[in-house]
Amino acid sequence: DQQVKQNSPSLSVQEGRISILNCDYTNSMFDYFLWYKKYPAEGPTFLISISSIKDKNEDGRFTVFLNKSAKHLSLHIVPSQPGDSAVYFCAASTPYNNNDMRFGAGTRLTVKP
Amino acid sequence: DTAVSQTPKYLVTQMGNDKSIKCEQNLGHDTMYWYKQDSKKFLKIMFSYNNKELIINETVPNRFSPKSPDKAHLNLHINSLELGDSAVYFCASSQGGFAALHFGNGTRLTVT
């Protein structure tokens, strides 16, 4: 039962343009969402998060949007840079089990110069 | 000054063997985890340890056993290895609550 889904395994964008990575979830009890970035041969690193009481959180070039009614969140990267090329994982956790973080399968972003 | 370090990075072994993967964190975090990334690239939680107490065990075969000698270490022991155990195993730590996880660089286990 994959509760967090990233339906696009890959995404390619031109440098300077916007990258939009999408994530859907099925468990309505999730109330905290995170994005992680992973380079080859490294572990995932935390990028940005959002609580369910918000619908947007911004950190520099990265913005996460949350649509609770649609159980959907997205990560916007603008402008995209070649160094952003990595696999991006969406993750979610619940209030009564916040040590049990669920991950999507990841989306491989390629930013072309 | 690596925050979460795990060894070895690669592990190749034969079916039926017993192996261990070590993990150490120097962040002072209260909770440590083991995740498995399977062939479909999903990261799935295996274990979570908080103050030496196991608080999550996600239907993992009992051939897998986490051992935490202290708050900074969580080792993973695997007995009677099977082909299906081949995967990348990630150790992680967090301060608990809604704090983000800090991951190690992974151990690629190949069972032949």
Descriptive report:
- The complex is a heterodimer of chains A (113) and B (112).
- With 113 residues, chain A is mainly β.
- Chain A contains no helices and eleven strands.
- In chain A, strands 2, 4, 5, 9, 10 and 11 form a six-stranded mixed sheet that branches.
- The model of chain A has no long low-confidence stretch (mean pLDDT 94).
- Chain B has strands at residues 4-7, 10-13, 19-25, 31-37, 43-50, 53-57, 64-70, 73-78, 87-94, 102-103, 107-111.
- Helix content of chain B is 0%, strand content 56%.
- Chain B is globular and about 35 Å long.
- Chain B has 112 residues and is mainly β.
- In chain B, the strands form two sheets. In chain B, strands 2, 4, 5, 6, 9, 10 and 11 form a seven-stranded mixed sheet that branches.
- The A-B interface holds A 2, 32, 34, 36, 41-46, 49, 51, 87, 89, 93, 97-106 and B 4, 31, 33, 35, 40-45, 48, 50, 55-56, 58, 90, 92, 94, 96-98, 100-106.
At a glance:
The complex is a heterodimer of chains A (about 110) and B (about 110). Chain A is an all-beta fold and about 110 residues long.
Number of strands of chain A: 11
The overall pLDDT of chain A, averaged over residues, is 94
Beta fraction of chain B: over 45%
State the largest interface.
Answer: A-B, 25 and 28 residues
Distance between the termini of chain A: 38 Å
**Principal-axes shape call of chain A:** globular
Q: Indicate the low-confidence ranges of chain B by residue numbers.
A: none
